[in-house]
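From the shared-data thread, chain only:
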Amino acid sequence: MIFFLMRDKLISTMLSVIFLILSILSGAYFVLINIASPGTFLGTIFSFSAVWLLIAVFFALLFVFERQKILKKILLGISKTSKIILVSFICAGVFIAGLNLFFICTPRLSDGNENVRYVIVLGGGITKDAKLTDSVQNRVRVASEYLKSHPTSLAVVTGGKGKFAPCPESDVLKPVLASYGIDENRILAENKAKDTIQNFMFSAELFAEHDGISVEEVLASPVAIVTSDFHIARAERLASRMGFSDVYGVASKTPPLFILNSYCREICSYVKLNLRILLTGKPKHL
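Structure, as tokens:
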């Protein structure tokens, strides 16, 4: 009897410690990524990073419940059928997340030898001071290297004004890309897009207008998409759905601090995209 009491107390203590550590780590991660990439207060609250704050609160509550012996009572009050359903949902969620992560990590990447006329540089957010985040700065640097190795290519930097942004993102992207030694005449700026679908739609229109050809001709041409490594697969899937027939991904590395947040967010976005395609058939060919 004493053995079982000691065992239960040890398990309870271990769970409390685990919950407390996870709460502290999640809260600290939320603070760190927002210090490293500062935004407005509302922008922070409504960004994906707020999930880490919610996770911190969740584990803090579990810690309190475990210390107050409430968690055990809650679990004992759940029926066996409900537990089976709950575990099934969790397992299904883990499987779906893992499957989508596999596709996210296996995009079609450029080998640098393709003959590409059009290069789309996707934005990814700016700070409240109208500066590029480290992640987007990496995209611009990689884009400049690609454009230098493909001197006949024409680029579009794409990104409109976000809900909490001080200005259109392309207004910041273009001069930064030019500062890497790329002729401004090779850089078109698209400043209306609110999401990746509009990024591609408006970019195709800009390319067509600049070269005096139809959008269909742009779609039939080889296109390179420059974005972060975690975003390449979804960007390629969207581009293909919208009619781009020959797409090459040019990936920039995600700063180490943002890897966890970026890939977790991308899993959610990739699942959302697949559900949208399944339920509505959108996005469709331009």
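The chain has two domains: 2-77, 118-280.
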